[in-house]
Amino acid sequence: MNITQLNQKKMDVKNYYGRVLKSNEDLKTSACCTTDRLPDEIKSIIKNIEPEILDKFYGCGSPIPKLLKNCTVLDLGCGTGRDVYVVSKLVGENGMSIGVDMTDEQLAVAHKYKDVQMKRFEYSKCNVDFRKGYIEDLKEAGIKDNSIDVVISNCVINLSPDKAQVFKEIFRVLKPGGELYFSDIFTASRVSKKFHDDALAYGECLGGALYIEDFRRILAGFGCLDYRVIANKKIEIDDPALAQKAGPMEFYSMTVRAFKLNDLEDRCEDYGQVAYYQGTIDGCPNAFILDDHHTFVTDKPILVCGNTASMLMNTRYRKHFKITGDKSRHFGLFPCGPAPSETNSTGKGGCC
Ligand SMILES: C[S@@+](CC[C@H](N)C(=O)[O-])C[C@H]1O[C@@H](n2cnc3c(N)ncnc32)[C@H](O)[C@@H]1O
């Protein structure tokens, strides 16, 4: 796409979320707004969020990881700010929850309830900040290099006409060891040009959905050689006309995590490392779920590959795990499932 086409796509999306849609009832498909089962803690925070914010929530998952106290969190394409406000509560008064969005109408609703929400959370100072900007150019929105602990995003990156640029920005702004945790729409094959160019399909988060293998390639291009899938649900397109246009293409709503780490490998390698979860993460006394194939039961030793060890040791999770072993001895490939380079179309993440 040339610059004019890129800008036109952004204008179309802005128009769709600013003018066409009045609430999530107007959506033609359930691609945005698939209902992930929300954790109880998040459900109870949402009960305290203004209905107008919730009416215009167009997310496709629950991209809110554990262990956010005191963190600085950035929500890409925050819309009316549901997730920014949920995070505001979770980071606490000394953390910071920043949302960036390009659409005035969405941001106006987000801004409108800032004082009300801060009062409801009983904060004496405001810990949310909504900024108008493009997720492809976070510098312009004032987000500095290595300044963010966690980047989240809910059903937005599919809408960007320049996804590689978005990930480049994400890895620029994340602190070393920082986490990207997002929900979005992925596909098992590249979408056809015709479907991509269909304005309704694009606005409904389907036309720009990322082919999972291209996602893996983009991350690898920024040095992130392993990502993990937390949730993965096939989307049924209920609108008959759109379903016909989509044909056999399969769409998935996925929640994915990746870290800014410079020691990840493209395959899971076995260094004989063992991880023990100490049961100390708030809300997770019995077990911590890293991804769809790693549940760390408190105090139970689990043999992990070098990448998993790094994700637990070189990130904000470090205080909550004990890891034995280092990378001085190598025992070969970790004996487990598909590595990123063999990722299959069901969207399995990297690692064992
Ligand atoms: C499907 S809605 C999701 C909104 C919000 N995350 C939520 O869960 O309600 C997509 C949002 O992303 C914003 N958006 C799309 N592309 C963007 C871009 N390139 N830069 C900034 N915001 C963008 C739109 O304005 C819209 O508010």
In brief:
Helices cover 29% and strands 22% of the residues. The protein is built from twelve helices and 13 strands.
Tell me which oligomeric state these chains represent: single chain
Biggest β-sheet, characterized?
A: 8 strands, mixed
Number of strands: 13
CATH class of the largest domain: Alpha Beta
| CATH homologous superfamily label of the largest domain | Vaccinia Virus protein VP39
Q: Which value, in Å, is the CA radius of gyration?
A: 20 Å
Fold and architecture overview:
Residues 338-352 have low confidence and may be disordered. By secondary structure, the chain is of the alpha/beta class. The strands form three sheets. Strands 1, 2, 3, 4, 5, 6, 7 and 8 form an eight-stranded mixed beta sheet that branches. The chain has a three-stranded antiparallel beta sheet with strand order 12-9-13. The protein is globular, with a radius of gyration of 20 Å. Helices cover 29% and strands 22% of the residues. It folds into two domains: 3-259, Vaccinia Virus protein VP39 (Rossmann fold); 273-332, Ribosomal Protein L9, domain 1 (3-Layer(aba) Sandwich), CATH 3.40.5. Strand 1, helix 4 and strand 2 (96-101) form a beta-alpha-beta unit. The structure holds S-adenosylmethionine. Residues 10, 13-14, 17, 32, 57-59, 77-79, 82-83, 101-103, 106, 134-136, 154-156, 159-160, 205 line the site of S-adenosylmethionine.
